[in-house]
Every structure is written in C-alpha cells, then in structure tokens.
Amino acid sequence: MFDTFLQYVADYSSLKLSDEEIEVIKKSFKLKKLRKRQYLLQEGDMSKYISFVTKGALRQYTVDDKGHEHIVRFGIERWWMGDYEGFTMKTPSRYNIDAIDDSELLQISYEQLEDLKKKVPAIEAMVKKIDQRSYVSQQRRIHSSISNTAEDRYIDLLNTYPDFLQRFPQNMIASYLGISPETLSRIRKQMAGK
Amino acid sequence: MFDTFLQYVADYSSLKLSDEEIEVIKKSFKLKKLRKRQYLLQEGDMSKYISFVTKGALRQYTVDDKGHEHIVRFGIERWWMGDYEGFTMKTPSRYNIDAIDDSELLQISYEQLEDLKKKVPAIEAMVKKIDQRSYVSQQRRIHSSISNTAEDRYIDLLNTYPDFLQRFPQNMIASYLGISPETLSRIRKQMAGK
DNA sequence: CGGATCGTTGATCAACTTCAACGGTCGTGG
DNA sequence: CCACGACCGTTGAAGTTGATCAACGATCCG
Questions:
Q1: Which of A93, A148, B17, B95 has its CA 20 to 30 A from that of A1?
Q2: Cα–Cα distances in Å, from B133 out to A63, A88, A135, B62?
Q3: Are B99 and B57 spatial neighbours (Cβ–Cβ below 8 Å)?
Q4: For residue A66, how many other CB atoms are within 10 A of its CB?
C-alpha cells in the first residue's frame, strides 16, 4: 500500500523521490486497518493524525438532534481524511469519521508531516497542491449549494466525482448533497426518463 | 493603509518585522482604489493579482442565465480578494468581483507573493494561517448549507460575521445565503417577534 | 424633482420533506 | 445452509418551506 502513496506523491509533486527520501517517508507513517462501520474518529475526540487512504472508503459527518446524518466529506483511495479543523483550532472534533467499507490507511501526525515537508521537497509540493485543490473544490461546492436546485447539485456531483455513485449508497449521496434520500430517488427516476 | 496591513501581518504571524522586511513588503504591493460598483475582475478575465482590502467592501459572485447574482464571498477590511481558483488552475475567472463601497486595496501578484514568502518568514506564517482559516470556514459553510434551514443559516451568519449586516444590503446577504431577498425579509420579521 | 434601489408584504406556486408502506438484497446467527 | 432481520431504494400522499410575481412605500442621489 506504500506504492499507492509513492505514486500519489509522484503525481502531485512531479518530483522524483530518492531512495533515502522513500525511507524517511516510510518511517513516518504507520498502517491502520479499519473494518466496515468502524470509527476512525468520533465527535468530541482530539486527533493529531491525518490518514491517507490506500484502500476502502470513509465519510466525515455530523449527527443532528433528530438523528440525521450530514456528510461533509467522503474519502476513498488516494484521499486524505482527518479532523483538520480540530487540529488547527486545537479543539475537539465536531465530526465523526468512519469506514464505509473495510479500509487501509497510512497515518501520520500533523507535527511529523510538518517535519516531513521540510525533509522532502516533494511532500511539500504535494501538500501545497492539495491545499489549492481543496480550496477550489470547496468554493465550487459552496457555489453549487447556494445557486443550484437539488437536481443540478446532483448533476454537478456526477460530473465532479462520477465514481461516488458506485462507491456509496444512495442515501449517503443524498446526505452529502443536503437532500433527503426520497428526493434523490425521485430525481434519478425523473432523469432516467429524459 | 500600509499600517493596516502591517498590523495584520503582526496579528497573523506573531512575528516582529524588521525595518528591511517592511521595506521589502512595501515595494511588493501597489495601491489600487476602486469606486463603488467598479469591477476588480470580470468573469472570463485572467488575473495574476490578489488584493488585500484596507478600506471598503467587495463581493465575489456569478450571474446566472436568469440574471440572478450568487455571492460566494464578501471582502472587507483585512480580507483578501482575488480569483484564487483561476490562478491555480490557470483558467479564466468564473467569477466577478466588484466594489460595494469605495475601496482601497493593496495588490500583489501571486508570483511576487511566493517570492515575498521566501524573503519574509512572517508573511509565510501569515499565509499559512489564512489557508487554515479559510479551509475551516469553508467547511463550516458547506456543513451549514447541507444541514440547516434558511433561518439557521442566517443565524450562523449572524454569529460568524455579525458586522456583515451593517456592511451589506439585505439582498446581498440573501444571495450569500442562497435564499431569496423576500425570504430573508420574512425570516427577520419572524425572528424580531420571538 | 425624478428615477433607481431597497426592503416589505400578500398571494400563488414549485420544490423539497416527512411519514408510511412495500419489496428486494444481503449478511449473520441459529 | 437457510431464515430472519436489517438495510436500502422506491413510491404515494400530505405537509412545509422557500421561490416567484406583483405592488407599494421609503430613501438616497444626481
């Protein structure tokens, strides 16, 4: 599963890694396996780790007083998951993160990642690119959510992350979009007969 | 208006700036004044600059085919404005940015900012903190938009940016929240009599 | 003064939610 | 290995929330 990560670094930094760098990287991470439905993090927890997903699928979400779940983020292979907010604000997590399928993660603490960025330029470049992309995707999601109807937001999702549909049950997709499962079902039906 | 910026850097980096650093910083920016209603950037433009607002108020928004405006971001004193997405993706802007009031900006190109970050550690620390905050605030806005009713989103806004109400007309607040001006008006009326 | 902009209000309409029921599939324990 | 319960998607009916359209008064500015 390190191959996945090394490939990812190469793709994101377009820098070649030396053997020593690869060693440093390997030593910085530890492997974690999660069973389906297992928590990586629960609301109220403090977490110093972020996790690179090499296998499986996870979600980050809250549960409101009516028991409804609201998914703010999904993570699959080659995505990062973690309570970035809690770390930067030094507060307990507002979110839960759990595994939707059996998953494999590479974990690193934020401090170690800072350290690694200094030692390995490719990692620094990678993090920078991730930050840029996440800014852009968040901004677009905000824009979609204030501008579009439920159907258009669903279409946006189809275009942006076509694989989500295969990977996640429909009710979670609905939660991610901020609509009820019933509405999503009807939207899909209605789109099928277009 | 440089005082505003220097104070901002101090607040965000908690590092003291040397006189030479202050000189380098001053040389990197150029002043720009905007009249109310004047564009800083229009959809389709390419922009290499980001702007630090020392005075006034701006908004970043799109206009849909029905002529409705959708505001993704506001900017007032001590905020940054610019087409970050267009710069990182090297694409023309999807957004318009214009001045809501007469405004004063300090402008710098992205390349120069990179350069400045290397020369002045306080700037680097500042940018890092901004990135973190913007991630967190975007995530929260997304969460609010998928979880909350119009009223709750308005309450969120009141708590997060209490000054927005004084600074921006109600129809723009509505646009930012993704609701119609009429709905916001009714929500406010209804909340007043609580 | 006259026009544009802004917030408000009422009436109607469309979008989405909620509640309830049903059928299919899948995983697990007996 | 089968049966049962849990979970998931679908559908219908009714209810709620928010959008739209239109009209009006107030304010601001040139």
A1: A93
A2: 24, 8, 11, 24
A3: yes
A4: 5
Q: Residues A112-148: pLDDT tens digits?
A: 999 999 999 999 999 999 999 999 999 999 999 999 9
- Distance of residue A72 Cα from the nearest chain B Cα, in angstroms: 6
User: Which of A134, A174, A182, A169 has its CA nearest to residue A157?
Assistant: A174
Contact (CB, 8 A) for B142 and A145: yes
| Residue A149, nucleotide of least CA–C1' distance | C15
Burial level of A43, CB count in 10 A (0-12/13-18/19+)? middle
Confidence of residue B194 (pLDDT cuts 50, 70, 90): low
**Which residue spans within chain A are E strands per DSSP?**
30-34, 39-41, 49-55, 57-63, 69-76, 80-82, 96-99, 103-109
The whole-number average pLDDT for the span A151-180 is 96
H helix and E strand count, chain B:
9, 8
pLDDT at position A10 over 80 = yes
**Interface of chain B against chain A, CB under 8 Å?**
62, 64, 70-73, 84-85, 88-89, 131-136, 138-143, 145-147, 175-178
User: What is the mean predicted confidence (pLDDT) over B16-31?
Assistant: 95
Which amino acid is located at B109 in the chain?
S
Per-residue pLDDT of A143-162, as tens digits, reads: 999 999 999 999 999 999 99
Min CA distance, A170 vs chain B (Å)? 16
Order of strands across the sheet with A49-55? A30-34, A103-109, A49-55, A80-82
Secondary structure (3-state) at B31 = strand
Instruction: Show which positions of strand C are touched by protein (CB under 7 A).
Output: 5-11, 15-20
Q: Measure the CA angle with vertex A166, ends A161 and A170; round to 5°.
A: 90
Q: Is residue B120 within 8 Å of residue B24, measured between CB atoms?
A: yes
